[in-house]
Each structure stands twice: as C-alpha cells, then as structure tokens.
Design a protein that fits this description.
A hairpin with a 3-residue loop joins strand 1 and strand 2. The chain has 15 helices and two strands. Helices cover 73% and strands 1% of the residues. The termini are far apart. It is globular, with a radius of gyration of 33 Å. 19% of the residues are buried. The protein has a two-stranded antiparallel sheet.
Length: 327
Amino acid sequence: MAVMTPTSRYTEGAETRQDAQDAQVARGSQDVRGTGTGTGAPARATARRPRPRIWRGAVLALAGAYFIVPLVASFVFTVHVPGRGITFEAYTELLSADGFTESLLLSLGLAAATIALSLLLAVPALVAVRIGSPRLRPVVEVMCMLPLVVPPIALVTGITTVLRWGPDHLSRTPLYQTFIAVQNENFPVVLVLAYTVLALPFVYRSLDAGLRAVDVPTLVEAARSCGASWPYVVLRVLLPNLRASLAGAGFLTLALVLGEFTIASLLGFRPFAVWIVSISGAQARMSVAVSILSLLITWLLLIALSRAGTTPSTAAAAPATTSRKEP
C-alpha cells in the first residue's frame, strides 16, 4: 500500500473541491435552463413568485365604484333633460349665474387667509415648544384639539353673542369700528377667525408629524452657531424641511373652508357652499353642476398643493461627480 505524502494529499483535496465546484456549476446551469432566466438564481427562489391577489382588485373596484358612480349619475342628471335629450345648458349658464363668481372668489380668499393665519400661529408655537419647552407639548395639543370637541353650532352661537354684545357696549369706543369691520360682507374677517379655530386640529397634527421627523434642535443649534438670526432659522432652515407638512396643513384647511356651510350660513354670509345651497331649490340641475365643478376645482387645488409639498430640490439633485475632472 502506497504511502500518502503531503503533496498527494493536497492534490487529492484539490481534485475533490474541483469536482464539487463542477457539480454545483452543473446544477446551476440546469436551474437556468429549467427556469429560463439568465441570473443563475436557484429554481426554488424563482418559482415562488407572488400570485396576483384577486381581493385587492375587488376592493379597489368597489372603492372606485363608490366614488365614481355617484359622480357619473350626477353628471348624467345635469346634461340629460327628459324630452329634450342631451344639453349642456346647466354648465353654459353657470358662469353667468348671479353670485357664482363672487361667492367662489370669496371662498378662495377666505381659504388663503385662513391658511396663512393658521400657519402663522401654529408654526412658531410648535417650534418654540419643540426647542424650549417640551413639557408644554401636551398643553398645546389639548388646546389645538378643543375645536374637535366643541360643535360648530356652539362656536357660531358664541360668535353671534359676542358680535351682538360689542356694538351695544362699545359704541363710544374705538373698538366699535373694529366690530363693524370684521363683519364686512365683501371679506368677513370673522369667518377667517372662525375657520382658523376649526382648522387648528388638522394643522397641528400635520405640523407635529413633520417636526417629529426632523431633528429640530440640531438644525437650530447649527444655524445659530453659524450666526443666523431666528427669522432666518425659521424661514430658511426649518420651513424647507417642513414643506410636506405645510402642504398637508394647507390641503386640509382648503378642503375645510370650501366645504363649510354652518358657520357662514348662520352668520348671514354667502360664500361658495352657501351659494350652492341657496340655488338648489330653484335650479336643481345648475346646483348639481356647481357641485361637480366645485369638486373639480377643489381637486385641482389640492393636487397643486400636494405637488408643491413634494417637489424635490434641484440643488440636492445635482450629481456629486461634477467636480471630477476627466483625464
């Protein structure tokens, strides 16, 4: 029996490893031929492909039908007149209807003023609480969530009481003119104040989520250490990082203002939602046409706000290899 030398053992081990590698390559080629893929992945991994789930499509179809079918039925009601066929008079007469343009512009102006005032109140307060007084966060949260507890009818009753009390007791003071000015029908500031209170819960939740996702103390400390003033820190450092949250807050506030009816109606003003209800009794088809048009306008404005909140910065998208010189 021959003696095994170290060289022969090494040669035998190398041949064994080579045979194992050849067998593995052969199995991989069989898997590639069997699956028809050129990646060399095992057949077991490629065979377990996710099967299409029918219930997902069914749920999406039901949700789409829930929203689309009423809109289609409303559109058919506005364009189909029994005995006359298809006509678009409800839409052609809409632009020339009495009060349409004025009420729509009033609602858009109220929405813009409400968004600006609510953000002006909420952003500095939440930033100050986040940086300087974290223990006050539950107090601020409770104060901002109170409008969800108080019904709008109770809120408008309190506003009406104050508006009636002011002129009677302050007729000989400069505040009398203030009570008259906030009730101007061309632009009722009292509605802006009431809508700001109603929008506070939505604005707070949106901004609070954005502030939780950003390391505010580190950003503020870095900017202040570089000599930046507080207005610069808020406008140029924090607000760009809260762009999505600001867009979400404006999104919700705009939807709230355009659809609010109770407060404006009880206070005697006529924004867009009140105007739609006022013409619904005499001109049913036009009122439905206005509702469809208001939905389209609201969707377009909301899409614009969402796009403004998710637009990436062009400076951040610049390639990092621009300073690299070609040989």
